[in-house]
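Subject: Sanity check before I submit

Could someone independently write out the structure tokens for this chain? I want to compare against mine line by line before I put it in a report. The sequence has 210 residues.
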Amino acid sequence: MIDFQTLILFSAASFALAITPGPDMILVAARSAAQGRMAGFVTQVGVSAGSAFHAIILALGLSQLFLAVPYAYDMVRYLGAAYLLYLAWQAFTSRDHSSSQSTQTHRLSMFVIFRQGFFSNVLNPKVALFYLALFPQFLDPEKGAVAFQILVLASVFLFIDFAVHGVVIWLAGSVRSLSKSGSSFTRYSRYFLGIVFGGLAAKLVFDSGK
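---
Independent answer below. Compare away.
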């Protein structure tokens, strides 16, 4: 079992990483500003689910594949960039819906937003490398199953990350709450979200250092 001191040190490291602006924080902030706090929250749930997926992959030992096979890293990286570019294209070309249509498709839209947050995280191989770099420093095979320790640490990290991003969601959502609802704001906020997706795609392509 992981000792208390290790959990405290890991929590401190997780908090420092969580408050550092990165792709996930930028995404949830942009989504919250463009579509409101609920959309930002659902995006964060998707991102957290993606991070949990990476943690499970690490626990199973499959993340080592990115280090052993560079082509696998590049393949996932380009696939992730292509997906983000697709989301950017959708944001730029989507049409505004009437209130009745919005009500009918709200549930579907929330699922789509969750899916986008999930895949934007899963298809970023740098997240897998982040887990590979951080977690081994806090693992001790003599204190129990390594896979179980990874899952415990991942749960701590996800909780802290969710809490920090929750503040970001609330603050970014205030932008939409204070803005006048109207077609102009809706259109420009959608364009802003498209720019964010495009920027994340470019970063994923050109920032190839491992």
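---
OP: Matches mine. For the report I'm noting this point. DSSP finds nine helices and no strands in the chain.
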